[in-house]
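Subject: two folds for Thursday's group meeting

Dear M.,

Sorry for the delay on this. The cluster queue was jammed most of the week, so I only got both jobs back this morning. I'm pasting them in the order they finished. Each block is the input sequence followed by the predicted structure tokens. Could you check whether the formatting survives your parser before we put anything on slides? The first protein is the one we discussed after the seminar.
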Amino acid sequence: LCGKHARCAAGKHLRNKNNKSLTSARNPCGKVQLSDVTIRITDYYRTIEEQNELYAQRRTKPGKIVTWVKGGDSYHNYGLAMDIAFIDRNGNLLYDDKYYNILKSVYPNFNLEWGGEWQETPDKPHYQMTFNYSCSELLKKYKNNEVDDNGYVIL
């Protein structure tokens, strides 16, 4: 998610994940002018176990609800989703509609689905690339051990 108009700070999680998604997701910001903020990828890949831990928050464990789906039902579990936020010049983490609305016009050109357009549970920080697979299809591949040497589902 880097470009000359937007500084980018991507976490270590982005390395060695599903390169098909990563390659496309990194290109759009060069076409978006966000000179007053840095785009930050706050979450990319989660294991199924990590997803279940997040899902338990405020349901069976303390914390606030941060996901609506259990492990295996999230594209994060397959390295095909990312959550982004913005950092201003003072280092404040922002989840500002103004910036999501700017990116909204760019991401469809890169075959990324934006969670901000979901009717039932909008998720503006969320972007995903499904490659026409449902999560249930990806989970089946995972359970059938159709994974590469790093444990990622083979698409």
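Second protein, same layout:
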Amino acid sequence: LFKNIQYPGYEVYDDIVTSYKLFHEATKLAYSPVRKYCLVEEKNNDYNDHDCVKKIKGCLEMLDFMEKNYPQLVNKCKVKICYEAIDLFKKVNSTRYKKQMYEYIKLYRNYAIKDNKLSLSKKYQVFETLLGFNFDTVWKVVPGKTPILKSFEK
């Protein structure tokens, strides 16, 4: 399988740009209900802007591949790009990259909204972008008071 496929040489998100190619090249696939692969992401994990760009580029490469080889999966890839862009928007620091992520969100969010398999919490985040809410916000809850939406934008 690895004759024509190589991991890209960086540790962050290398599975995104490799796994689907391995499935494509495989002549046999087996299924086991036992979970053997799991990504554990620590809350204090620092993502730099460059890592986030690698992730979205990997998703875009996957979309291009699916358009050529599996057109029935194209909409699912667009949903993934939308949700990944929302997640990355929250992680990147650069205004330039935030704008880039928001462009991907706008481009693909309708696919996410129409996806019946997307979880309610993910759909809510997509709807926030559609309604123009600042999805880089949190609810500040003070005991005995009404929750206030607090923005961290300057």
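Two things I noticed about the second structure. The two ends are 49 Å apart (CA to CA). Residues 86 and 105 are 7 Å apart (CA to CA).

Cheers,
T.
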